[in-house]
Amino acid sequence: MSTLVTNTITGLSTAANITIGSTPVVSASANSLTVRGEGSAQTSVQQGLNKHWVNINGTGTIAARDSFNNSSITDVNTGTYQFTFTNNMGNDDYCAANIGKMNRGTDNNGGSGGVNTADGEADVLTSSFVVAYINVASQADVDVAYAGGHVKGDLA
Amino acid sequence: MSVLELNGRIFDASTTGTLTLTGEGGAATTDVTQGLAKAWVNLEGTGSGVPARDSFNVASTTDTGTGNYSQTFTNNMSNDDYAHNVSGRGSTVCFGSPNDGGYATSTMALYLFNVSGSLVDATYAIATLHGDLA
User: Fold this and answer.
1) Most exposed among A74, A90, B120, B124, judged by the fewest C-beta atoms under 10 Å?
2) Which value, in Å, is the radius of gyration of the alpha carbons in chain B?
3) Chain A interface, mutation test: which of B10, B30, B56, B66, most A Cβ atoms within 10 Å?
4) Residue B17 phi/psi, 5° resolution?
5) pLDDT tens digit string along B66-104?
6) Phi, psi values for residue B35, rounded to 5°
């Protein structure tokens, strides 16, 4: 086995491409690195990455169990949580999805909902977003043991 | 130095277990390893066997009851603190959720509900998981 030690690799025929055989497997342009997908198409590595995820305990003193690119969480009010990014998004058009574990058969709390505007909170910002949870049966806001979110979009 | 630089864009693998990449805006870097989904599945939620239509890092799928499905990972997670979201397709499916026993290092489990909060089989049950591999 040999090791190539170098600071920079430059494509031979195209400076921004690395080709194995006749297949371009990595290419780069400004702020976009693409790789060959499972088929024949190229896909953007940056666009395919989650830019944030978090799993929190939303009851009592709320706390993150694990997270990525999440600097803080705020207990806005019952069943409503705000997640603040460490590195902000480039715009507020990102795709945010929330997660929540349903306590079915006990209290029916935890139905995953959307981002929340009912409390007058700014819901989707470049620096944070808000999620909300309800009791499915009563539609009442409710704190949940498992809450969190995922974000895909453009970093600043 | 453990850097791959292409046209000024950088993969940095200097720290074990992390790979960072410049983000879309150019101002921040992002951790590729943390941003990758560690498992995803799209399975047939009706009939027998609930086979995966397509998946990643899923070794098997099990029908554990109405609207209730579990998946075994090919490569386990290092802890059960991961974040996975659940959705589904079906005439009565309204929303999905992790099963209330659905966090383990070797498996994840899904619930699909109708608008009343009752479990229903989904034509397709879908989940994506982010977290730390073992």
Assistant:
1) A74
2) 18
3) B30
4) 85, 0
5) 999 999 999 999 999 999 888 888 888 777 888 777 789
6) -80, -15
Which sequence spans correspond to the domains of chain A? 1-48, 52-152
Chain B residue with the nearest C-alpha to that of A69: B30
Q: CA-to-CA distance for A8 and B8, rounded, in angstroms? A: 9
Nearest one of A143, A101, A79 to B80, comparing CA atoms: A101
Token pair in block for residue A144: 């949940």
Q: What separation in angstroms does the CA of B89 have from each of A3, B42, B109?
A: 49, 10, 17
To which H or E segment does residue B75 belong?
Answer: none
Q: For chain A, how are helix, strand and coil distributed in percent, rounded to 5?
A: 5, 45, 50
Minimum distance, in Å, between the CA of residue B34 and any CA atom of chain A: 7
Residues of A in contact with B67 (CB under 8 A): none
Give per-residue pLDDT as tens, B15-39.
666 677 888 888 888 888 889 899 9
Helix (H) or strand (E) holding B32: helix B32-35
Residue A62 Cα, gap to closest chain B Cα (Å)? 15
